[in-house]
């Protein structure tokens, strides 16, 4: 059965005695904007790390388009069309915006290792094509004027955009965003909202973690709520807002809810 | 200033092309040494500067190339020119084999392991492995370079051999900058996790960097063996690796920075002959000062080698 979705079944990840993710089962349908929310320390980022191959879950299965991807390395998972951003932005900070985005073209480039020593007309053409693609992304993310600027000298909101542009350069099927609105002001957040919709229009499934409830309720089609590594609820944003368990999890743990 | 930048490389190359005819034999020898060590330092830059791996054993690959040429020529009677492919391939292969199990090590751990390799290598040479390496005295009396029946014995011919190898190295470095593999090295140095998460197999590119750096150093080794028509273990001691390491660090992982470092380290001591014993002292202080004042090197590597058509209204320039 060739499905086109991401299915997590009973995924469990332990750190020593702590069970960070406990038998989590979720299904992300193609074309969805899927949200994972929960109080701090609920294991949201750990779930993402298990999907993207940074951690290997002890139990359960991570199935992507009918293929088991648990235990693959991060770059093998990117090769299958899943790409992520980080909660704490991880850009190549000394390098220019264009070069950062170019890194996403790495797996799409057809160059072989010997082209690094002796280039051929074919490798030059490939190089040119990928830079043109970077040019398109600079335009899409409205970053053209910063093409040659090192990313470390950009404001935070722009860095977020560069990171998303870099992820989109891979031509992903599933884009995973780890708290994309963290540290953004209201204006930047509403721009982000539009960006996420525009990305979905291109046929990309989006899976995101977010603290900003306003954003989550506006942008997502479907939500899963985690608390202490366990799924306590799932449903559409409307259903979630009315769910008493969710309200309790958020109100009952307000002390550790703020960052 | 722009014009100066554009013409600086051609002028530099023309200078290097005519310089042996203006110098006496002693200075010709110094120039050859400069070119050889520049090539080794550039090969070290691929591993240390571009890929950010603390390799403290570059003299090993340099020596392996020199010994490959010497052994094949002296024991097996190969002409020097025929030993060149082997002098590149054997160190490159060893680079890949040695790097395979150790590239996952971080910073200082990798440093210690590569020091170990270098020491083992010199010990093996000194103990006359298989009766081939000639023990502590090394191997003497190599044949001279000959191409198409022409015997190139003169020092000027050796200089041009070194010059060609130097140009070839610069050309490879230039190609590397404009390739997928070369950028992958930059990415993994900047942030390994981010590089993996964007689809780069960091391990294979680290090993590639070692293989390429080792191959180029091996080629420089051949030129070194030809220049002295002899090889001996002390030229490839661990302290030589330290020099190449510090040249890249102090120079700043850019071609001009590295050439400057090689000049200061190997040519200046010849100019101030009477102070030659002071060179480590002076270079030591230069290292301390440059690391305090310019932590990214005297002539830091510039990034932003992106096609012109992408630069619209750059405020900072490329």
Describe the protein:
The complex is a heterodimer of chains A (259) and B (318). By secondary structure, chain A is α/β, with parallel strands linked by helices. Chain A folds into two domains: 1-81 and 205-259, P-loop containing nucleotide triphosphate hydrolases (Rossmann fold); 82-171, Rossmann fold. Chain A is 36% helix and 23% strand. Chain A has helices at 44-51, 74-79, 97-104, 121-140, 156-168, 186-201, 213-219, 237-242, 244-252; strands at residues 6-15, 18-28, 33-37, 59-64, 67-68, 82-84, 174-178, 205-209, 222-227, 230-235. In chain A, helix 6 (186-201) links the parallel strand 7 and strand 8. Chain A is globular. By secondary structure, chain B is mainly α. Chain B has a domain at 25-242. Chain B contains twelve helices and four strands. Chain B has helices at residues 2-22, 25-50, 58-74, 80-99, 107-126, 155-177, 180-190, 192-197, 202-228, 238-251, 255-271, 279-293, and strands spanning 139-140, 145-147, 150-152, 230-231. In chain B, strands 1-4 form a two-stranded antiparallel sheet. A two-stranded antiparallel ribbon of chain B has the order 2-3. Chains A and B meet through helix 2, helix 3 and helix 4 of A and helix 6, helix 7, helix 8 and helix 9 of B.
């Amino acid at each position: 059965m060739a499905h086109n979705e991401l299915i997590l079944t009973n995924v469990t990840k332990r750190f020593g005695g702590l069970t960070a993710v406990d038998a989590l089962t979720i299904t992300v349908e193609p074309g969805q904007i899927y949200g994972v929310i929960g109080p701090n320390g609920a294991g949201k980022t750990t779930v993402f790390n298990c999907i993207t191959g940074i951690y290997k879950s002890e139990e359960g299965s991570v199935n992507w388009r009918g293929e088991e991807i648990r235990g693959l390395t991060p770059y093998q998972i990117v090769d299958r069309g899943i790409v992520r951003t980080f909660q704490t932005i991880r850009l190549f900070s000394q390098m220019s915006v264009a070069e950062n985005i170019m890194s996403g073209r790495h797996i799409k480039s057809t160059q072989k290792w010997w082209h690094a020593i002796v280039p051929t007309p074919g490798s030059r053409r490939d190089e040119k094509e990928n830079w043109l693609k970077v040019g398109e992304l600079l335009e899409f993310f409205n970053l053209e004027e910063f093409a040659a600027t090192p990313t470390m000298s950009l404001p935070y909101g722009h860095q977020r955009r560069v990171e998303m542009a870099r992820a989109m350069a891979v031509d992903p099927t599933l884009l995973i965003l780890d708290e994309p609105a963290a540290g953004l002001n209201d204006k930047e957040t509403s721009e982000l909202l539009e960006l996420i919709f525009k990305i979905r229009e291109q046929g990309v499934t989006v899976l995101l973690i977010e603290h900003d409830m306003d954003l989550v309720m506006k942008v997502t089609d479907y939500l899963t709520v985690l608390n202490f590594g366990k799924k306590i609820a799932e449903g559409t944003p409307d259903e979630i807002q009315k769910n008493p368990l969710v309200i309790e999890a958020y109100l009952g743990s307000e002390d550790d809810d703020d960052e | 200033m722009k014009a100066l930048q554009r013409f600086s490389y051609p002028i530099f190359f023309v200078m290097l092309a005519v310089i042996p005819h203006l110098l006496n034999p002693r200075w010709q020898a110094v120039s050859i040494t400069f070119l050889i060590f520049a090539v080794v330092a550039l090969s070290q830059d691929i591993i240390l500067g571009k890929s950010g791996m603390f390799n403290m054993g570059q003299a090993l690959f340099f020596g392996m190339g020199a010994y490959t040429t010497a052994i094949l020529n002296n024991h097996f009677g190969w002409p020097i020119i025929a030993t060149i492919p082997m002098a590149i391939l054997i160190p490159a292969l060893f680079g890949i084999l040695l790097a395979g199990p150790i590239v996952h090590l971080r910073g200082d751990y990798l440093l210690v392991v590569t020091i170990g390799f270098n020491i083992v290598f010199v010990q093996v040479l000194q103990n006359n492995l298989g009766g081939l390496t000639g023990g502590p005295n090394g191997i003497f009396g190599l044949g001279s370079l000959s191409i198409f029946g022409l015997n190139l014995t003169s020092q000027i011919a050796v200089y041009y051999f070194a010059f060609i190898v130097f140009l070839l190295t610069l050309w490879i470095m230039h190609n590397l900058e404009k390739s997928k593999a070369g950028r992958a090295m930059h990415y993994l140095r900047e942030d390994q996790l981010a590089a993996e998460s964007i689809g780069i197999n960091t391990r294979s590119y680290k090993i590639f960097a070692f293989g390429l750096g080792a191959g180029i150093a091996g080629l420089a080794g051949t030129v070194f063996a030809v220049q002295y028509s002899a090889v001996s273990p002390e030229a490839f001691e661990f302290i030589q690796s330290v020099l190449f390491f510090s040249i890249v660090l102090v120079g700043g992982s850019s071609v001009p920075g590295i050439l400057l470092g090689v000049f200061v380290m190997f040519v200046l001591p010849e100019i101030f002959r009477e102070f030659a014993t002071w060179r480590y002292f002076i270079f030591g202080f230069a290292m301390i000062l440059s690391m305090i004042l310019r932590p990214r090197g005297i002539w830091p590597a510039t990034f932003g080698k992106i096609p012109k058509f992408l630069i619209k209204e750059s405020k900072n320039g490329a």
